[in-house]
Specification:
Shape: elongated
Strand content: 5-15%
CATH architecture of the largest domain: 3-Layer(aba) Sandwich
Order of helices and strands: HHHHEHEHEHEHEHEHEEH
Number of domains: 2
Number of helices: 11
CATH topology of the largest domain: Rossmann fold
């Protein structure tokens, strides 16, 4: 994982040198660091407030402070079953409906997810239902060819996306696929039209095709930071999102958004994308995530 974990550790270490003890000013500066790493104002204040209740005033045991901070960060996902994070039954047809704004890395995420399950010996079909964006068909087509996955997509630009989904899922049922990954439109210029389109897509899947959607995954670009929360709010008004996928979680992203999202919406991050290749996808695990952030801080 390549997000700014070293910078996080470096900034936290500076506090110990600057203040030499756990006091009011230390706490104020810690809040600023947490806010700067995209945890959000309210979540950062809450984290420090919990920490104050656990650490004695003027304590100089910084290793204990770091251990408690780690526990608090992990606790935001304490209700999540990390052993079975994505709802999928290999013995049935599973449908993942993927949403997100254009440019968030949605199509690349879908390709990586397809590759992930292909490597688990599942039969995966991609459906290119973004029929509005010029180049969308070509982009998902290149990924499908590279990974070796079948693809159903629009015959022409601005084709009714629901007709593409209908064709794709019908094909998947006839040919015993295990998993369908649906790439959807992500334009926000006309929110009302996009909302109606996505809702129609889902209605077609549930009623006309009599099929269940296992996961509705919202893809967010990690680099947008707190703006990602605004995007999440918009899509939550449109569809029932079951999980978040964070993309571009590399050297320029800060990582705290994963906790901020869970805190605000109680929707977990389920996937993280950390690079350019089809193998750069990980199932999100909060303990590994926070441990990576704080690896240079805590002494065993």
């Amino acid at each position: 994982m390549l997000f700014k974990k070293k910078l996080f550790s470096k900034e936290i270490k500076k506090l110990a040198k600057k203040h030499n003890q756990f006091d009011e000013q230390y706490c104020k500066d810690l809040e600023e660091i947490l806010i700067g790493f995209d945890l959000g104002v309210q979540t950062s204040i809450e984290i420090v407030s919990i920490l104050v209740k656990k650490i004695k005033r003027k304590s100089k045991d910084f290793n204990l402070i770091y251990q408690e901070l780690k526990k608090i960060l992990i606790s935001y996902y304490h209700n999540q079953d990390r052993k079975n994070i994505l709802k999928i039954n290999p013995k049935k047809l599973n449908i993942f409906f993927i949403v997100g704004v254009n440019g968030s890395g949605k199509t690349s995420l879908i390709a990586k997810l397809g590759n992930y399950y292909k490597n688990k010996n599942l039969k995966v079909l991609l459906i290119g239902a973004d029929t509005f964006r010029a180049g969308a068909k070509e982009q998902i087509g290149l990924w499908a060819k590279k990974i070796g996955l079948e693809l159903v997509c629009a015959k022409k630009l601005k084709q009714d996306s629901s007709s593409v989904i209908f064709e794709g899922i019908t094909y998947a049922k006839k040919n015993n696929f295990n998993l369908v990954l649906i790439d959807t439109a992500g334009r926000l210029q006309n929110k009302k039209n996009l909302m109606l389109e996505l809702q129609k897509n889902i209605r077609i899947i549930k009623t006309k095709l009599n099929s269940k959607i296992n996961e509705v995954i919202l893809v967010l670009d990690s680099n947008t930071g707190q703006n990602g929360l605004n995007q999440a709010e918009i899509f939550l008004d449109m569809v029932n999102v079951s999980g978040i996928a964070l993309t571009k979680l590399d050297g320029s992203a800060k990582g705290g958004i994963a906790i901020a999202i869970k805190k605000k919406f109680n929707i977990p991050v389920k996937l993280i994308s950390i690079g350019e290749t089809e193998n750069d996808l990980k199932i999100f695990d909060i303990e590994s995530f926070v441990s990576e952030m704080m690896k240079d801080l805590i002494k065993s």
